[in-house]
């Protein structure tokens, strides 16, 4: 009898185990079917969403003056969908006030891009893939949150215009940017630069530079290496002196130095005959200079005064001449005391 009980118990155990396995297999099969169904539904929904995004993007693509442009303004696009790669013919991106947080890594798919204008967004990073855009001429990323520039940007061999104004934390540039042999326009205003990077001095085609609103404390003594620069904005910095070699910038015709800490003007600047516009307003200069009153007709008097205030050349020359007179007076007094 004992042997029979054991046998029946063993059979029952095997039967229970078998039934459990069958149930588990059925449950697993059911879960697999449900997962497959959910995946299929998800894929269908994703495909449908992509079709909606694609249709929406297609509405934003326009052709102006022969260029294919993606234009989005004042609409929320915190991220650009991957389906955008279906528009490889795009030559310009004009995306403003969209809240865009990232330049997508698939930016390298747009080899026809000439202009990339992403100003006034929330971009924190410029991806290294940007360096693959060898036809890009303009990169405009002002009024964002970019804190660094990738060295790969130096590979954008066609780049002519770079604007990075008002990114707040930006304070340096990679040395590789000196390879941008066609870059003539550079805007770095309203950032945290404490000096003009060596990279900028090495840009061979640079003509227009704005570094106003930074924390510049001095200018490089070899600033004249920027031999093609004709416009230089340095307002609202912390400059206390100007290097003598600034007078050797032969192409310079516009120089803005307002709201700094300058106490003097180099005498050699008197010979800068190409300098058309200069502004020394709001600096603690040590000499007070009053310009003689102009004798003009009544109708042109106000216009002439505005010109003198705006250009500031007369003030600069009068200041240098007065400084020279005072220097001679001090020297003569010293000699007289020695006699």
TrEMBL record:
- Specify one Pfam family: LRR_1
Q: What is this protein called?
A: Leucine-rich repeat-containing protein 39
Does DNA repair show up as a keyword for this record? no
Entry function: Component of the sarcomeric M-band which plays a role in myocyte response to biomechanical stress. May regulate expression of other M-band proteins via an SRF-dependent pathway. Important for normal contractile function in heart.
| Gene3D superfamilies for the chain | Ribonuclease Inhibitor
Identify the GO cellular component terms for this protein.
Answer: M band
Q: Where in the cell is it found?
A: Cytoplasm, Myofibril, Sarcomere, M line
Disease resistance R13L4/SHOC-2-like LRR domain location is 89-192
Q: Which UniProt keywords apply?
A: Cytoplasm, Leucine-rich repeat, Muscle protein, Repeat
- Major site of localization recorded for this protein: cytoplasm
Instruction: Check the record and name the PANTHER family matching this protein.
Output: LEUCINE RICH REPEAT CONTAINING 39 (PTHR48051:SF2), PTHR48051
What domain of life is recorded for the organism? Answer: Eukaryota
Source organism per UniProt: Aldrovandia affinis
Indicate yes or no for the key word Repeat: yes
């Amino acid at each position: 009898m004992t042997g029979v009980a054991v046998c029946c118990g063993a059979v029952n155990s095997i039967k229970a185990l078998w039934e459990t396995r069958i149930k588990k297999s059925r449950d697993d099969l059911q879960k697999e079917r449900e997962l497959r169904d959910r995946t299929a539904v998800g894929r269908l929904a994703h495909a449908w969403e992509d079709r909606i995004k694609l249709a929406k993007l297609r509405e934003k693509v326009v052709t102006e003056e022969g260029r294919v442009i993606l234009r989005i303004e004042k609409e929320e696009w915190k991220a650009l969908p991957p389906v955008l790669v279906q528009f490889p013919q795009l030559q310009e991106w004009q995306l403003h006030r969209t809240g865009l947080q990232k330049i997508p890594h698939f930016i390298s798919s747009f080899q026809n891009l000439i202009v990339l204008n992403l100003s006034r967004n929330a971009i924190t990073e410029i991806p290294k893939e940007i360096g693959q855009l060898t036809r890009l001429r303009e990169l405009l990323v002002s009024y964002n949150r970019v804190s660094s520039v990738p060295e790969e940007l130096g590979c954008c061999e066609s780049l002519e215009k770079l604007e990075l104004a008002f990114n707040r934390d930006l304070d340096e540039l990679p040395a590789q940017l000196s390879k941008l042999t066609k870059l003539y326009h550079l805007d770095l205003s309203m950032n945290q630069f404490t000096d003009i990077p060596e990279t900028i001095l090495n840009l061979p085609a640079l003509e227009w530079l704005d570094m106003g609103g930074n924390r510049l404390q001095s200018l490089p003594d070899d600033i004249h290496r920027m031999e093609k620069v004709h416009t230089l904005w340095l307002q609202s910095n912390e400059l206390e002196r100007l290097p003598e070699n600034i007078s050797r910038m032969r192409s310079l015709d516009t120089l803005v130095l307002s709201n700094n800490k300058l106490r003097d003007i180099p005498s050699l600047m008197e010979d800068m005959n190409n300098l058309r516009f200069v502004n020394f307003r709001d600096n603690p200069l040590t000499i007070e200079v009053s310009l003689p009153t102009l004798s003009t007709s009544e109708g042109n008097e106000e216009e002439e005064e505005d010109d003198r205030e705006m250009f500031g050349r007369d003030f600069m020359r009068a200041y240098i001449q007065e400084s020279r007179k005072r220097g001679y007076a001090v020297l003569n007094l010293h000699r007289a005391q020695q006699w």
